Every structure is written in C-alpha cells, then in structure tokens.
Amino acid sequence: MTKRYKVLIGGEWVGNDWKGIEVINPYNDTVIGVVPEAPADGVDKAIIAARKGFEEISAMPAYKRSEILARTAELIMRDKDEVAEIIAREAGKSWKYAIAEATRSAETFHFAASEAKTSHGEIVPMDASPVSAGRFGFYLRTPIGIIGAITPFNFPLNLVAHKVAPAIAAGNSLVLKPATKTPLSSIKMAELLTEAGLPAGVLNLVIGSGATVGNRLVEDDRLAMITFTGSPPVGRDIKSRCGLKRVTLELGSNSPTIIEADGDVDHAVSRCVVGSFANSGQVCISVQRIFVHKDRYDDFIGKFVAATRKLKVGDPLDRDCDIGPMISPVELKRAAAWLDEAIKLGARVETGGEVVGNCLQPTILTGVTRDMKVMCSEVFAPIVSVLPYDTFDEALEMADDSVYGLQAGVYTRDIGKAFKAIKRLDVGGVIINDVPTFRVDHMPYGGNKESGLGREGLRYAMEEMTNIKMVCFNL
C-alpha cells in the first residue's frame, strides 16, 4: 500500500484526515506517497503553533540552538542513504547528486550551528558626534518572529535547510511550505529536527498549492517575513501581497560562462558538462549560455560535445546515472517546445535534443540568437547554448544582456580581465575560472535584477532574519 504521511504542527504529527496529495516519482510516474493538503484552519493552527514556538526558541540560549542544529547535521549524515533515496525518488535527481545534496545539507546545518554562537551586534562610537559625546551605544541582533518559508522542488532538502537552519540559529520559528512535488524531504527533515530536540512549534510544516497555502502565509500579518525560492513571476506576486513583511526572493537566472582565449579549455569543458546538465539543468545557477573566444571555439565545441555524449540518462537510482527525468511532463513539454522553437529559428543541435520517456537528452545548441527563449529566458532544462565572440568586451556585453543577474563564470588567466568582469557584470556572484554553478553553503548567495532580493548563506540569511535593536546609555 502507498504510504500516507503526516505533517508536523505544534510538535504533533497531524493531517491523517485531510485531503491527500499524491507524490509522483517523475522517472516512472509511480505514486511514492500521499501527503496531507493543509486546509485553511490547518494553516492557521500552524501559525498559532509558531507563535508559541517563537516564545521558546527566541528565549533559548545560543549554545542550545547550536547544539540542536549540530545534532541535526549528525542525524542527516547517519541517515544520508535514506535521505538521498527520498531525494532521488521524489525529485528525479540522480543518485550521485542526491547523496551530494544530503551531505551538503548536513554541512548547511553545521554552518548554522557555528553561526548561532557567533551572531552579534557592534559598539557604535557615540562620541563621533558632539551631541552624543559621553554616551555609550551598541546594537543587538534580535529574531524577527515567525518566518514563512516557501521552497522549490529542485533541491528539496538543501534549499529547505537554507531557510530553516538560519531561522532557528537566529531564534525564529517557521511555517514551512515545501513544493508539493517534493514534500517528503521536508517531512524527513522535520523528523530529524524533532529527534535532535527542537522544541514544539518552532518548525511547522504545511503542504499545498501556492494559490491556497502559499497565499495564506504571504498575506497573514502574524508572519514577520517570507523567504521564497522560485520563479520571478511568483516572486513578484509575493512581494505585492506581503504588505510590510520582510521578504527575500531567490529567483531565476540564465547563467553565462565566458571562456577567454587564455582560459583552461579542458577544465572548462569538464565543469560545463556538470554545470549545464546536473539535475537535468533544473538548477537556478545552471550553465545556460556559454561564450567562447573564436580562437578556442572549435576546440571547446568538439570536446564539449564528446564529453556530453558520454553522459548516462536514465533511472536516478541507478548508481551510474548522470541525468534523470525532468520534474514533470508539463516541464518536459515546455522545454521541448522551446527547443523546437530555437531549431525553427535557425539553431543547430550539436548533440541531444531527443525525449526518451520522461527525460530530455542533454542538448547543446549552436547558431542561437539572443532573442530565442533558450537564450533570453530561464530554460531550466538540460539545454545549453554556445556562441563564439571576438573580444572580451563583446563577451561581457552579451553575458550581461539579461534581465537576470545571479552568478556568472569567467575563464581567464589575465587578472586584469578578471577584475574587469567583476566590475562590469551586474550579478550577485562572479566565479573566476569555474562555472556559475559553483556554490558553497556559507558564502553569500543571491542575485540582482530579476534574480531576486536579499542574500542566503547562513550568516547572511541570519542578517535578513533579524532586526537591529539600538541601545544607548546616557552616562
């Protein structure tokens, strides 16, 4: 029988009598579980529980919060094979990347455990002004309150960890709404946090559509903040609905990589294969546009195509699998339509382009133009476009010609060109001699333009999730 799951609200596992949502394995379309869909009063109960949870977690000493987070990291590693299997089955992520996500999630909690003990304010030099000479001032960082976390399908554990862990580290409570396609990873995380000793009501889990559950969280004035990862249209809608809540938005991208004439082509090829096609390209910082100096273009294309053709597409639970399915038939159909459009407009398929079951073969396009959807929009599929360029300035101009600005990669041995790119590109992160897909979990991460607002990465997320309280003594 298909397992029916419950959700965590106020320290209790509830929802057995709620309407169910089927969780589908995107590789073979089998039902792998049924989760409860939160009704309106279920969301309300979660918020009420979070208010009580906030009272306890905000008063808890930092070292205790740190211990809970560190213990959670240990439990993830204890159960990492089980966690990876959940990710592979519900998200269609190949085993090698699923096990890597489990390990990264543990590291995210470890970083949060460290930050919980080191978050602090600063002394403000009051005698810098004659009117405040003789006074002593400092500020504290205080938890903001209840945080509504709305998370995506593509990293169903680690992107949840990037919202849950810093919120707890800073002393906040949460109502978490994971993607309806991948809620099982969040349920497992809630189980492990409970086992680690997290007090009741600090983390509350509700599942349902954005139009129902998501909007209830966004519009409820009892929440102090919404943190969202997803598409720009939804992010824009959230910002328009959330009132005076604080909001952080991690949105889309069509990340560029520039390979200069003096760049390491062999390294670029190996990294672009991973950056373009891992998780079927369903990564916010997936390589989507590659600009190669004309003198290295033929060399790069030949090696890139050859390396891509070696990738194994199939069942994510197969340990040799490199690429699994796309998340849903709807997304597969959309990506195939964008690919067909590009071909009709003159793009050439160097390899891939075929749909096999629920998988799209990794696809390399040349002959593309900037106005094609595969170039100017976020393709979120295993499709990458490669273009030659004449000058570095031309490459920078093409890379920056986007409504997005998350991360960019630049291959060059010329330090002057590296700093020119750093200054010129309007993005949240510039990765020199690697692809934009590079991320470690303690660095500041976020985008400019339509790629979002605010920053993640444990310490930086905690800054978003705290208020500054100024204290001034008149001595």
Note the main sheet: 7 strands, mixed
Q: Indicate the percent of residues in helices.
A: 25-40%
Walk across the major sheet and give the strand order: 14-17-18-13-12-20-21
**Shape designation:** globular
Give me the secondary-structure category: alpha/beta
Put simply, the count of helices is 15
The CATH topology of the largest domain is Aldehyde Dehydrogenase, Chain A, domain 1
Number of strands: 24
What average pLDDT do the residues reach?
A: 98
What is the CATH domain class of the largest domain? Alpha Beta
List the helices and strands and how they pair.
Elements: E1 7-9, E2 12-14, E3 20-24, E4 31-36, H1 40-59, H2 62-78, H3 80-91, H4 95-118, E5 122-124, E6 135-143, E7 146-150, H5 158-170, E8 173-177, H6 184-195, E9 203-205, H7 210-219, E10 225-229, H8 232-241, E11 246-250, E12 256-259, H9 265-277, E13 289-293, H10 297-308, H11 329-344, E14 348-351, E15 355-356, E16 359-360, E17 363-366, H12 373-376, E18 383-389, H13 392-400, E19 404-405, E20 407-411, H14 415-424, E21 429-432, E22 448-449, E23 452-453, H15 458-464, E24 466-474
Parallel strand pairs: 7-8, 7-10, 8-9, 10-11, 12-13, 12-20, 13-18, 17-18, 20-21
Antiparallel strand pairs: 1-2, 3-4, 5-6, 6-24, 11-23, 14-17, 15-16, 19-22
Helix pairs in contact: 2-4, 2-5, 2-6, 3-4, 4-5, 5-15, 9-10
Keywords:
24 strands; 15 helices; Aldehyde Dehydrogenase, Chain A, domain 1; about 475 residues; Aldehyde Dehydrogenase, Chain A, domain 2; alpha/beta
